[in-house]
Design brief:
The complex is a heterodimer of chains A (145) and B (435). Chain A has 145 residues and is α+β, with helices and mostly antiparallel strands. Chain A has helices at 16-26, 52-61, 82-92, 121-130, 138-142, and strands at 3-11, 31-38, 42-49, 66-75, 97-103, 113-118, 134-135. Chain A has 2 domains: 3-69, VC0802-like; 71-142, Alpha-Beta Plaits, CATH 3.30.70. Chain A is globular, with a radius of gyration of 16 Å. In chain B, α4 packs across α5, α7 runs parallel beside α8 and α9 runs antiparallel to α10. Chain B has helices at 12-33, 35-43, 65-70, 104-120, 139-151, 163-172, 182-194, 217-227, 340-348, 385-403; strands at 84-90, 98-103, 128-131, 154-156, 177-180, 207-210, 230-237, 242-248, 255-257, 262-267, 280-287, 298-307, 319-320, 325-326, 331-333, 336-338, 353-364, 367-376, 407-412, 427-429. With 435 residues, chain B is an alpha/beta fold. The model of chain B has no long low-confidence stretch (mean pLDDT 92). The chains are: A alpha+beta (145), B alpha/beta (435). Chain A: InterPro entries: ACT-like_dom_sf, ACT_dom, ACT_dom_pair.
Chain lengths: 145, 435
Amino acid sequence: MLINQLSVFIENKKGHLSKITKVLKDASVDIRAISVFDSAEFGILRMVVDKPDEGVAALKNAGHVVKQSFVLAVEPSDKVGSFHDVFNVLFENDLNIEYVYSFVMPNNTGAPLIILKVDDQEKAIDVLTKSGIIVIPKEEIYNPS
Amino acid sequence: MKIWSDQETLSREEIQKLQFERLSKTLTHVYENVPHYQNKFKAAGIKPKDIRCLEDLRLLPFTTKEDLRETYPFGLFAKPKNEIVRYHASSGTTGKPTVVGYTKNDMKVWTELIARIVTMGGVTNADTAQISFGFGLFTGAFGLQQGLEEVGAGVIPMSSGNTQKQIMIMQDFQTTALIATPSYALHLAEAAAEMGIDPRKDLFLKYGLFGGEGSTEEMRAKLNEAWGIFSTENYGMSELIGPGVSGECRALKGMHICEDHFIAEIIDPETLEVLPAGSTGELVITPITKEALPLIRYRTKDITRIDYTPCDCGRTSARMAKITGRTDDMLIIGGVNVFPSQIEGVLLGIKGIGSNYQIRVLKKGYLDRIEIDVEISDHNLLDSVTFLDRLYKEIETKLHTILGIHAGIHLVDPKSLARSEGKAKRVIDLRSENL
């Protein structure tokens, strides 16, 4: 159920993001979700892409620091309080969320999907599934129907 | 204009006679009391009595910062600890500082030399002098304080930093002489203007005594213009005594070397041969009255030339020109000596970053600023911004501990810094471009 995520170091410099997206474009890697975590001096770009291994190889080749790690994607239902349901389940099970970002898939009609990095990912999948929250398998993200 | 001491107007013959007497005494003193020198002299096959005239000085081995480093902290001291009354230190080429010490008599000499130099700059007992050098291990602030008090000036030991308060005190105490690095003095003038104070009208400054870093005539013109002052420059280094080695008089024809206490030579830094009078080369200084730390032929690594003709001011002492460069890679950042090797030593000891780095020195306003690009190498740092933050702070803190100044750190992609074939260009000094 876990999804490959690419984390790339970004210098606090004009044009650095486009340098990274150019590398992925040239390697025909499609970005599904993207988010930037930054401080005053530097940042980390986190992405979910359709071909993670190709993406990592291309970025490394181009001289970037890249790390692959695993995250969860969940699909909250389109109603008031549905995000709260997700976070509350994790909280009640003593799970700590390291970061969150959201994105929309082309075939997605309801609420945006959310990417989660939780300190214990396996346990998170388990408790979320048991609470009836949809955890999206990676195939669906890489190759949407 | 007043001349502080009659020693400043001795004839060339008198100076040379005095220099030789004092050199002979100093050589015996180091040979008998400093094993490191005894070994150096033996290795060179020379004894103090072999030095029969001033010209024989060139037969003696040189001393460098390396000698001080090898014998850290007190190995070159020629007096026991119970006779040392003051310690100072400056940054060394590696982690350990260069330590210097003074006996009671050294302190008396030092005070006398600064008194001469502040007198050259125009300061008298009618003046109120604000010392905006940092008080601490560096010699600048304490040295000037002693000499200024000796001439009877009122000293404000302001130290550096706290710019707004500097201006307030300057106005309220009616400071007439400013003691600072030239770059800090320019920064202060700018800060005063920002506070709505016109340094020329609202303040009382008459003199600027600048040192701790080199400067140019352009900088002097700017300082004089900004403050409405007459500024002079003085020269020294902690290894030799601190400030007090030489200073400009109001004729502004070079810095008068206190020749009754220091013998100056100019050498070719490549061949190490003494160059004829008037040549440009590396300044080598032998202090000849110091008790605690008498160094023989100390290589300053500063490039200058010496003029032996008498000056318009009446002093007969030789004058050295403004320092035009260094024979090593030492940087002077706001008066603080920084060696790229110190920075390298810190960076190589930190995990998660590569071995390539680049140092940029620039002016932020009038202040020197050092920025260092560091390549990150460990992809595990990307798990959390906190990891990167921690790395950033680690680099910053460790550099501050070693250098004593803040450096701006930029984390950059691996291999993004220019690789050069052969000797890497680690340092880019952009300061002259935006003066």
